[in-house]
Every structure is written in structure tokens, then in C-alpha cells.
Q: What sequence folds into this?
């Protein structure tokens, strides 16, 4: 005899979901989740994936010009890793019902965002090192807590990604160390790159907590574990001693150790600049979007051909069967 | 947990093997005797290494240009992979040249401080790819040819070339298969993709004959170099198979002549080569005293 269990009510499902979150257990693809959680999660993962993909462009700009074959290999491997990160993340979003084409469409139509940092230009080879050190470094600070995200596939993707980001950060720092012990011109290139990337790196953590409307819900769902300002402070505290070891000056006269707080104090961030960059007015927003759109559109005939070939193969198999 | 603090993870011992050749730095030639075998002319051996090394370096450069422009993310990864493998082969071969000619010059000297006429790559390697069909046509042709050459080089009298070839054969087999699959998809796919693939092979084919012309350097290195003329049959068989699966025909176009009797192997290149090198060498030449 078969006993059919009555389908659990929405309220019961909701209670089960809240319970899973409260016990710090992972939500898995087949679990019921509230629609708002699903949407928020898909958007968060998609925007993260977009950042990986758009993030290939600033550094990709220097691959063909890398000044030694070893640096060229490292940089190419790094940019390739970012494509891989984009791929895992789009796959993680797909487990929640996201669709890759749809997400790409939302990126190139500007309906979904990517990290504001990639809207700054890379103007010398030192930028490759500074991006590794500061941008991958800030990304690690942001992403390490995501390894404990409540959504299982995202958390697991983040563990793998964070490991690779730590390689990226090391290679960047190592390049800067080498350049700082090189010629005077090389040292100037490094300092100039630090001057240009320091503040945008701090902006990578997002708006200040009192102006971050989504933080509370994301913290409650354990999609997010620390506030923007907490992560930003952590990044500053970690980076200042590294800058000293490197011999560069961070472009902030207010930067000073505060023994009372046990943290570095730092100057005011230009939030208007962040708003401008996020809303499309950064130095490279147009170029980044245009490149992505063009690659996608130029590839349309290739993707169509692959699909047509697969259909024909299928038909041939059926005829043969 | 190490990941509670991002920077603890950085201090962990890492599996450097994950990185591309030479980025962590494990010498793939460790344990291989690098003295030039007796009876072999070191200068000729160096020239031969530059021929094979430049093919890889220059084709890798053209693949690097595809970065962030591929039709799909999977191809972004695959093209970068092929570019990295070829770059790895180039580095080994250029480094070998500096040992063989006794100059002790490193890979970067050859890549960044030679003039255009000193590059010894075949002209097809420097060909620009106007679209994805040209990319896969060039990669199919060059890797099929190179794979056949490398298979022979595995028994080269120069143990270094033999070791490089041994490593390269697996890589090139993957490159060739990747390109072959795309040629088939595009040839068989839609009317548009078929026409684009036909045009791509028409564009590439005039530079194919050059690949099989035996050069004096190769003639002077019996047992060390592989004679490219010998691999033509094998190449034709593979191409015939792929083209037929792709519903394409072998292009009927004339071979491109050389210039004053010289072609890529003699340092006579196409007009595109100067721009390629201007880009490749720009930073290194602007800072000749720098270390990177
Ligand atoms: Fe990444
Ligand atoms: Fe990264």
C-alpha cells in the first residue's frame, strides 16, 4: 500500500527554509526557497559572474604587450582563470533557474551590474601588478565570507575561486616587488598605478553601511556575512603594512594607525565618484560594455552554427536508428 | 578554517603545478642533458629552435588577441589554453637556442630584441584572424602540421628537442582536435557558417605550401631536425578527413610567392608582422634596463 504524503504547505516550507538558515546549514538546488531569496541570489551570482568576465578586459589589455614571456604566461593564465570563474558562477546561477543567455542579455543591456572597479583604465604594465595586489586582494576580502554563503553551489564555487584569487594577488604583489627593485621609471610606474587604483579599490566594497539598503536582508539570509564598512576596514588594515613593505605611498594623507580602535583610520571616500561610475559615467564603462556586446554579437553566427550542427547530428542519428 | 582570513590562505603552500609552464618555475628540462650533441652544429641547431619557437610565439600572440572576444566563454578558456601551451613551447625553444648557439641569451632576448627579419616563423603563423572561422582554420592547419613534425622530433638526436616534442605532442593533439571540431561545426552548421568557413580556408590556403618546404637549416641537421616535406601526406590525410566531415572541399587556390626568393623561414614576412612585433616588443624595448 502506498501512502501519499500531503504536499507541505507554503508556510511549512518557509519554516523549513528559515530553520535551515538559522542552523547555518546550506540551501541546495532542490530545496524550496522563497521567491525573493531565489531572485536575490540569482542576481548576486550573475553580477559576480559579470564582474569576472568584464574584469578580464583591463588586464587582458596588456597580454600582448607583457614585457617578459614569463609575465605574459602568468597574465594569460590569470585572465583565463577569470573566464573560468565566470563559467562556474553562471553555472551556479543556473542551478537556481537562471539562464546564461538571459544573464548575458541583462549585462549587455545594462540591467545588471558588474564591479565598478573594472571601469577604470589600465595605463601601464604596473597596473597589472596593482590590480592583482589591490583589486584581487579586495575581491578576496569580499569573497572569503561568501565561502560560507547559505547557498551551497555558490559557497562551493567561492572556495575554489578564492584559492585562485589568492594566486592572482600573489603574482601581482610579486610583480610590484620586482618592479620596485628595478629602474627609477619602474618605481614611478608602480606609484602612479597605486595612486590611480587605491580609492577605486576601497569603493569595491560598496556604499557605506548607512546607505546600503539591501544589506539587512542579505545578512538575515546569510547571503552576506559582514557589512561593507567592516570588510573595507579589514582590507585597509591588511593592505597598509603591505604597501610599507613594497615602498609605495598610499594616496591618503589621513591614513593613520588608531591605537584606540585597533584599526587604521582613513580619509573620506568620494561617494559621488562611485555613484557616477556605477551609473555609467566611469572612464571606461562604455568601452567595457561595448567590447562585451561586440564579442557576444560577433559570436552569434558561431553559436547558431554549433546549435544547427548538433540538431543535424541528432537527426542523422535518428535516421540511422 | 584558513579562509576566515583571506591572507592566511595566501601564505599556504600552493600547488604551483596548476600554473602555466614557467610561472611557478619548475624547469621542464630538468634532468635533460642540454649539451649540444657531438657532430651537430650549434648555430644551426639554434636556428632550427628559433624556427619552431617563433611559429609558436607568433601564433600564440594571435590567439592572445582573441582574449575577451571569443564567441562563448568555453572558447575563451580553450583559446587561452592553446595560447598558453604554445607560449610554453616557444619559451623552451627560444631558451634552447640561447644554449645551442653558445651565446647564453635568454628567451626574452630572442622574443623582444630581435628585428622582424630575424624572426623565422612561417608566414601563416602571423596571419591576422578576421573572424572565428579564420582562427580555427589557421589553428587546424598549423597544429596538424606541427603535431606531425613533433611526432618525428620525439626521436631527435638532440635530447632537448626530443623532450620538448614529447611534451608538445599531447598539447598539439588537443589543439588540433579543438580546431577540427569547430571546422566541422561551422562547415556543417548553417549556410552562413559554411560560407564563412569556405572563405576562411580560401584565405589560409595560399600559405600552406610554405609549411612543407625543406629549409637549408633542416637539411644540415639530419637526425636532429624533422624534414617537413615528409609530413605532407599525413597532413593531407588529416585535412581531407576533417574537411569531408565539415562538408568542405580542399581549396583550389595558388600558393603565395616569397619575396626575393625568401619566405617566413628566411625572415621575409608579411606586412602584418611589423605591427605584431611593435606591439609584442613595445614595453620591453621602452625599458631595456628593466627587470620584470
Ligand atoms: Fe576571479
Ligand atoms: Fe582574480
A:
Amino acid at each position: 500500500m502506498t501512502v501519499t504524503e500531503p504536499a507541505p504547505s507554503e508556510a511549512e516550507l518557509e519554516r523549513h527554509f528559515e530553520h535551515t538558515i538559522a542552523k547555518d546549514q546550506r540551501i541546495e538546488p532542490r530545496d524550496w526557497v522563497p521567491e525573493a531569496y531565489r531572485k536575490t541570489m540569482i542576481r548576486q551570482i550573475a553580477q559576480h559572474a559579470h564582474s569576472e568576465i568584464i574584469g578580464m578586459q583591463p588586464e587582458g589589455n596588456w597580454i600582448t604587450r607583457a614585457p617578459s614571456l614569463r609575465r605574459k604566461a602568468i597574465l594569460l593564465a590569470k585572465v583565463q582563470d577569470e573566464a573560468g570563474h565566470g563559467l562556474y558562477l553562471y553555472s551556479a546561477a543556473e542551478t537556481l533557474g537562471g539562464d546564461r543567455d538571459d544573464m548575458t542579455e541583462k549585462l549587455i543591456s545594462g540591467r545588471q551590474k558588474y564591479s565598478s572597479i573594472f571601469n577604470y583604465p589600465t595605463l601601464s604594465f604596473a597596473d597589472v601588478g596593482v590590480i592583482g595586489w589591490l583589486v584581487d586582494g579586495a575581491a578576496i576580502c569580499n569573497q572569503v565570507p561568501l565561502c560560507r554563503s547559505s547557498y551551497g553551489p555558490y559557497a562551493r564555487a567561492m572556495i575554489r575561486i578564492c584559492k585562485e584569487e589568492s594566486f592572482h594577488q600573489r603574482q601581482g604583489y610579486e610583480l610590484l616587488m620586482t618592479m620596485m627593485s628595478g629602474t627609477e621609471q619602474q618605481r614611478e610606474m608602480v606609484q602612479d598605478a597605486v595612486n590611480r587604483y587605491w580609492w577605486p579599490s576601497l569603493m569595491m566594497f560598496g556604499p557605506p553601511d548607512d546607505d546600503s539598503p539591501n544589506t539587512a536582508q542579505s545578512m538575515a539570509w546569510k547571503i552576506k556575512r559582514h557589512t561593507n564598512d567592516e570588510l573595507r576596514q579589514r582590507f585597509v588594515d591588511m593592505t597598509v603594512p603591505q604597501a610599507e613593505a613594497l615602498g609605495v605611498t598610499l594616496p591618503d594623507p589621513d591614513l593613520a594607525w588608531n591605537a584606540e580602535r585597533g584599526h587604521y583610520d582613513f580619509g573620506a571616500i568620494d561617494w559621488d565618484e562611485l555613484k557616477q561610475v556605477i551609473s555609467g559615467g566611469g572612464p571606461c564603462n562604455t568601452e567595457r560594455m561595448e567590447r562585451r556586446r561586440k564579442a557576444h554579437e560577433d559570436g552569434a553566427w558561431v553559436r547558431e552554427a554549433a546549435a544547427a550542427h548538433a540538431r543535424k547530428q541528432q537527426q542523422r542519428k535518428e535516421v540511422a536508428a | 578554517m584558513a579562509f576566515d582570513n583571506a591572507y592566511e590562505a595566501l601564505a599556504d603552500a600552493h600547488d604551483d603545478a596548476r600554473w602555466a609552464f614557467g610561472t611557478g618555475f619548475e624547469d621542464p628540462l630538468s634532468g635533460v642533458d642540454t649539451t649540444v650533441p657531438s657532430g651537430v652544429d650549434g648555430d644551426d641547431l639554434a636556428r632550427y629552435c628559433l624556427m619552431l619557437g617563433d611559429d609558436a610565439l607568433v601564433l600564440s600572440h594571435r590567439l592572445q588577441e582573441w582574449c575577451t572576444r571569443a564567441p562563448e566563454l568555453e572558447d575563451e578558456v580553450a583559446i587561452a589554453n592553446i595560447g598558453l601551451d604554445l607560449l610554453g613551447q616557444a619559451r623552451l625553444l627560444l631558451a634552447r637556442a640561447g644554449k645551442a648557439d653558445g651565446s647564453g641569451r635568454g628567451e626574452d632576448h630572442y622574443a623582444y630584441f630581435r628585428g622582424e627579419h630575424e624572426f623565422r616563423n612561417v608566414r601563416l603563423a602571423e596571419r591576422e584572424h578576421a573572424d572565428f572561422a579564420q582562427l580555427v582554420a589557421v589553428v587546424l592547419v598549423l597544429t596538424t602540421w606541427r603535431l606531425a613534425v613533433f611526432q618525428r622530433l620525439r626521436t631527435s638526436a638532440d635530447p632537448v628537442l626530443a623532450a620538448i616534442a614529447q611534451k608538445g605532442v599531447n598539447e598539439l593533439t588537443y589543439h588540433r582536435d579543438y580546431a577540427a571540431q569547430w571546422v566541422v561545426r561551422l562547415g556543417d552548421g548553417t549556410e552562413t557558417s559554411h560560407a564563412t568557413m569556405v572563405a576562411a580556408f580560401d584565405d589560409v590556403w595560399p600559405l600552406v605550401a610554405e609549411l612543407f618546404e625543406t629549409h637549408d637549416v633542416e637539411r644540415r641537421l639530419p637526425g636532429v631536425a624533422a624534414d617537413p616535406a615528409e609530413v605532407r601526406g599525413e597532413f593531407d590525410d588529416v585535412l581531407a578527413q576533417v574537411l569531408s566531415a565539415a562538408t568542405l572541399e580542399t581549396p583550389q587556390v595558388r600558393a603565395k610567392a616569397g619575396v626575393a626568393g625568401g619566405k617566413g623561414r628566411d625572415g621575409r614576412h608579411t606586412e602584418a608582422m611589423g605591427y605584431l612585433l611593435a606591439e609584442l616588443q613595445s614595453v620591453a624595448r621602452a625599458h631595456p634596463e628593466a627587470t620584470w
The pocket of fe (ii) ion (ligand 1) is lined by residues A 52, 82, 85, 161, 165 (CB under 6 Å). Residues 2 and 10 of chain B are 9 Å apart (CA to CA). Confidence is low (pLDDT under 50) at residues 1-25 of chain B. Residues 34-286 of chain B form a domain with the Ferritin fold (CATH 1.20.1260.10).
